[in-house]
Protein: Phosphate regulon sensor protein PhoR
Amino acid sequence: PAPQDSDRTLEIRMVPYGNDQQLLLARDVSQVHRLETMRRDFVGNISHELRTPLTVLRGMSEQMAEMALPEADALERPLGLMEQQIERMSRLVDDLLMLSRLETEAPEAEHMALDMSDLLSGVADEARTLSDGRHAITLTVDEALTIRGDRDELRSAFSNLLTNAIKYTEPGGRIDVRWFEAAGVACLAIADTGRGIAPQHLPRLTERFYRVDSGRSTRDGGTGLGLAIVKHVLSRHNARLEVNSEPGVGSTFSCIFPDPVREAQPASRADDR
Ligand code: ADP
Structure:
């Protein structure tokens, strides 16, 4: 059905036309917009609806694991697998909900300047717990450098990047996290000595469910949504993601914030543990 005039969306472009003339092109994208809104609502609703049955399933499987059943030994493996799959599905649902919130809710109009060294120490500590001593993780922070932003959203984006660095780096590898200013922009660089990514995959990495090696990534507990979340969070902060990677050598994921805030007393801190 044709949309009402009041909810028409036009995409307008200027293109060069002949000698020093411009042509104004207007395309009616109302239908595309409506379908996109329906898709977002559908994904948001379905993820929300899946939460309750998942909670029930988790409760039941925990109860069964605690029961003194005569077949306890035979049940151990299937129950363990059930729990793993419930966990995996919960992660998927949480990530889908987060993505749908990022796509539908407008970002806060006025953001606070963040305590980046506190935020990043928290994320690095979490990563050290996850790595459990298998990687050398360092954090270097320019303490006078900060940005305005949503603490929870950024925390989840940074934590996704660090979790990936751990997942895709063999034990014994290094992960270096640096918060610094260069050429007027603030940058969070997360460099690993992991398996790296072949150049043909780089342009598609932030697509939902895109994985370089899907069998492997699923076993590693990934949902394929992490980098899509990172991309959305960054774009809500007027920031962008840059990826440099060499297969077999490692990857650097850089979050680039064009509007840094510099606080009065510059100081640098290297916190190597
Ligand atoms: P996943 O949940 O599969 O990790 P992501 O969206 O976070 O999904 O990442 C998409 C894909 O990008 C991953 O499946 C992996 O193939 C690749 N990738 C992401 N981070 C790294 C990294 N640090 N080193 C190597 N490959 C990576």
